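Q: I'm teaching a short session on how sequence maps to structure, and I want students to see two examples side by side rather than one. Could you give me a first protein with its sequence written out and its structure tokens following it? Keep the formatting plain so it prints cleanly on a handout.
A: Of course. Example one:
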Amino acid sequence: MAVPEPTLDALNIAAKAASNRQAENISAVDVAERLGITDAFFFASAETERQVKSIVDEIEDELREQLELKPTRREGQTEARWILLDYGHFVIHVQHEEERENYALERLWADAPQIDLSQAD
């Protein structure tokens, strides 16, 4: 099952917004067939908690502005080591680089198809 076009559009907007705030290691995976409750996971990381917050704010602002999307759930804002934005069809994970190394979510989903985010450039 391929990720629907509206979700791909949103992921590309998120990738561009994250890139604008100097996010590192931006990627996304198609988890629809393996998970069933969402289509995709988006990952980005940053060196500081302040930068994690800035990236999340930019992603949220751009998705709201361009697609009128708002997350149904937002977690981790207080500590800003790992902030999750749940949009239903996709989930955004922005992590401090130490959390990203420690939890290594990409390894858990290594067999999931990668999503091309080249339209974000």
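Q: Perfect. Now a second example for contrast.
A: Example two:
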Amino acid sequence: MPEDIRYETDGGIATITIDRPDVHNAFRRETILELNEALREAAGDDGVYVVVLTGAEGGFCAGADVTEMPDWSEEMTEEEYAGYLWAVQNVVRQLRGMEKPSVAAVGGPAVGAGCDFALACDLRVIGPDGFLREGFVRVGLVPGDGGSWLLPRLIGESKAKEYLLTGNDITPEDAVDLGLAVDVADDPVERATELADDLLELPALAVRRTNALVDPEQSFEEYCERAIAYQWECVNDPEHAEAIAAFGEGREPEFERDYS
């Protein structure tokens, strides 16, 4: 039974909650292991169509729990530290690699790796008390969990460097202005779930393949080749046929699905 993570499914939506509110949902080693397992479960569950990632009591994730951090240089070898950091990076790796869309509900601090977890999601909703902070430089570290790769691709190199090199906060209003957040909401989990519900109303295969096609690393020709393959899958998808029929008949589509 997980101690640091709550994993709940309802009507095709998996909600993963980092549940350590006494430390603003900062993570320890066990949290990372449980978070990776929850993401694997969501990715492999055919009854899950959208993932919502959030933190307990209206928060998100304040990065690593410094009260449980060892003295890395004294207690671990470089190889051991690499293994630990790989596991943290794998949360980002899984979120980035999962074709099922993910929505981050950021109600509180999203700091360091917690910021990177939010950036790795496909969509973000932020609350009035939420903020994003790549604060690694302020404690003498580099963004080891994906931030220096993710942020420039989301908001451009120059603006990303402003936040990466200063460690300054990205406020809710700035997050929306920069295109990082869909919305500022008093209840970001509720708003994130509304977005998830909107996605559930669409043909699932088309949503997943569209999500996979958004890849800034591929060339245009690579994109075109993948698009042909994905489009052929979608053409033969029963949900495509139902969506076309519903459009022609002036009604909402009715997809036959087994939700978790």
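Q: What should students look for in example two?
A: Point them to this: The longest helix spans residues 78-97. Also worth mentioning: The CA atoms of residues 12 and 226 lie 27 Å apart.
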